[in-house]
Design a protein that fits this description.
The chain has 127 residues and is mainly alpha-helical. The chain has two domains: 68 residues, Winged helix-like DNA-binding domain superfamily/Winged helix DNA-binding domain (Arc Repressor Mutant, subunit A, Orthogonal Bundle), CATH 1.10.10; 34 residues. 60% of the residues lie in helices and 11% in strands. The protein contains six helices and three strands, in the order H-E-H-H-E-E-H-H-H. A three-stranded antiparallel β-sheet has the order 1-3-2. Helix 2 crosses helix 3. It is elongated.
Length: 127
């Protein structure tokens, strides 16, 4: 039977990432139909609508009424979303000091220097 086999499926989260990228690039609320048209992956509109609804339920998107459906937009930009995920992971770990130590020890020299600078900037801002 023709169609996508198990090995032909997208990697987990790829479609979600594509949907978010469309919304971030647009910079305005979009309906499922509009997102689907930009994605141009031959998906059913209902598939895109399901993804948008799930992202809304998770708090990643906000939505406003638009015609008979909704228009969606991201709550945060890409860096904000990643930072939130990192913060939630850190908060779920009882030994935060070990997690932070491992994280810092795995950084490149450039990233380590950037982190130092950001921490100093944050310290200066709080004074």
């Amino acid at each position: 039977m023709p169609g996508k086999g198990r090995d032909d499926r997208r990697p987990h989260g790829e479609l979600v990432a594509d949907v978010l990228a469309v919304l971030w690039d647009a910079g305005r609320p979009m309906t499922a139909q509009q997102v689907n048209a930009v994605l141009d992956k031959g998906l059913a509109r209902t598939t895109t609508a399901t993804i948008l609804t799930r992202l809304y339920d998770k708090g990643t998107l906000r939505r406003t009424p638009s015609g008979r459906g909704f228009a969606y937009e991201p709550v945060e930009n890409a860096p904000g979303l990643v930072a939130g995920r990192m913060r939630r992971e850190l908060e779920s770990e009882p030994r935060r000091d070990l997690v932070l130590r491992r994280f810092v020890s795995s950084l490149s020299e450039d990233d380590e220097e950037t982190l130092r600078r950001l921490l100093l900037d944050a310290e200066d801002d709080s004074e």
